[in-house]
Specification:
globular; Four Helix Bundle (Hemerythrin (Met), subunit A); mainly alpha; 194 residues; 6 helices; binds S-adenosyl-L-homocysteine
Length: 194
């Protein structure tokens, strides 16, 4: 499929995700933090995810820097990438909306933090991470480039792998039994399956 078209689709998706997050990011700055777990490791992981999901894909879209690492993908995979954009943005939006004032870009407990177990949190514990997994998968399907297509999977994959257990341990420590009960009723990323 025409790489210019794929670049346009990815860039519109990417801008959509930023527009969705922006108002929540502004609002969450006002919510007081009770417990901050932002370690040095967490800062490095956030930087890796930003590199893989922001800097490297945008360098591919707007400069010829990585053209030596281009390859071809079958059209049906490009089409799956395009089809994933709208459900991914929907889930990204819903998870921000349902988490509301409890959302943090990093590991933190806010004043008056409460367990969200409704909406898209009813059956899965990490719908925002599900949306971001879909994001980095569609990045790989829309940008056929060994560096910028795969960098999201690597950057976010590292953040996810090293964060998710710590996040659940933090929630358990903070909320005890109610979070343990919520854990038994939900799966991590894919409803009823995983
Ligand atoms: N892992 C969740 C949330 C990501 S944002 C998801 O993928 O949807 C990370 C912050 O959300 C953490 O710092 C934690 O304080 C908060 N958090 C995670 N799960 C929560 C829940 N079920 N209810 C309330 N806050 C939660």
């Amino acid at each position: 499929m025409d790489t210019l078209l794929l670049k346009v689709v990815f860039t519109v998706f990417w801008l959509g995700a930023f527009l969705i997050r922006y108002p929540f990011a502004q609002k969450q700055k006002k919510n007081l933090i009770k417990s901050d777990r932002k370690t040095g490791e967490e800062k490095i992981l956030l930087a890796c995810a930003t590199l893989g999901m922001v800097l490297l894909p945008m360098l591919y879209v707007f400069t010829p820097l990585f053209s030596f690492a281009n390859y071809q993908l079958p059209v049906f995979l490009n089409l799956i990438g395009i089809a994933l954009t709208v459900p991914t943005l929907w889930l990204f939006y819903r998870s921000h909306k349902d988490l509301g004032r409890n959302w943090s870009p990093t590991l933190e407990i806010r004043e008056e933090h409460q367990i969200v177990d409704w909406g898209v949190y009813k059956h899965i514990r990490h719908p925002m991470y599900t949306a971001i997994w879909l994001w980095v998968i569609l990045q790989a399907l829309l940008l056929p480039n060994y560096i910028s297509g795969l960098s999201g999977l690597v950057g976010f994959g590292l953040l996810y792998a090293l964060r998710v257990n710590k996040e659940e341990a933090m929630m358990l420590e903070q909320f005890g039994k109610p979070y343990a009960a919520y854990r038994t009723k939900t799966t991590r990323l894919i409803p009823f399956i995983f």
